[in-house]
Q: What sequence folds into this?
């Protein structure tokens, strides 16, 4: 299994940049996912990292360092609609099922 | 559009009264999952199917059962709901693979209230 740690809550200003960190411990790593979940709704897939480095997708980027057991999700040009919970999920080697962290609640204010 | 559908979106039941939640998918994915999520917590995997093979998580109470009659449909049965079972129940699907993203696609969830 994994031990996944994310900050519980973050706040940021509309138009700014925010970085949401995720650290994990696993005996064998096979991929890290970020999901966005608006209140009362289902999680939606944002990104997947399996190799070290930065994956950019529009306003969202995700970074992975396997040696440090660390990832971050970077959100640029924040919009009010980005207020949501951001879930980090890690997949063990040999498994097809990720384990979810408890998520970081991001509040974007004007 | 290919999707994961859950019915109903909101379910109210009485303490001890059996309830069934349903999930269907048009993605033709061979894996279907049921998660329980309580407020501000991580989704907790209850069980999953790979095709017809049922996989129960070790800490899933016996009170929770599941059926998958075909590729498209999966049901969650709660035999005797307790107050602690009030939660959002999420159905998800994916392809099965240990390489590539094989990300999960989630339905909108069913919010269960137990009175």
A:
């Amino acid at each position: 299994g994994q031990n996944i740690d994310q900050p519980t809550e973050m706040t940021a200003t509309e138009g700014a940049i925010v970085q949401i960190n995720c650290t994990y411990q696993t005996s064998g790593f096979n991929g890290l996912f970020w999901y966005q979940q608006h209140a009362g709704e289902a999680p939606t897939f944002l990104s997947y990292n399996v190799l070290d480095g930065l994956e950019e997708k529009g306003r969202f980027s995700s970074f992975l360092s396997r040696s440090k057991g660390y990832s971050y999700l970077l959100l640029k040009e924040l919009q009010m609609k980005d207020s949501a919970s951001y879930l980090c999920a890690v997949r063990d080697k040999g498994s097809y099922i990720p384990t979810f962290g408890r998520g970081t609640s991001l509040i974007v204010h004007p | 559009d290919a999707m994961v559908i859950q019915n109903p979106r909101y379910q109210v039941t009485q303490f001890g009264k059996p309830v069934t939640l349903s999930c269907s998918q048009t993605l033709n994915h061979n894996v279907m999952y049921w998660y329980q999520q309580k407020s501000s917590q991580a989704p907790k995997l209850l069980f999953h199917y790979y095709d017809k093979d049922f996989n129960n998580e070790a800490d899933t109470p016996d009170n929770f059962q599941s059926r998958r009659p075909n590729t498209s449909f999966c049901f969650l049965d709660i035999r005797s709901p307790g107050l602690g079972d009030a939660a959002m129940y999420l159905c998800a699907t994916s392809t099965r693979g240990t390489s590539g993203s094989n990300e999960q696609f989630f339905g909108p969830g069913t919010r269960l209230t137990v009175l």
About this structure: DSSP finds no helices and eleven strands in chain A. The first strand of chain A starts at residue 3 and ends at 5.
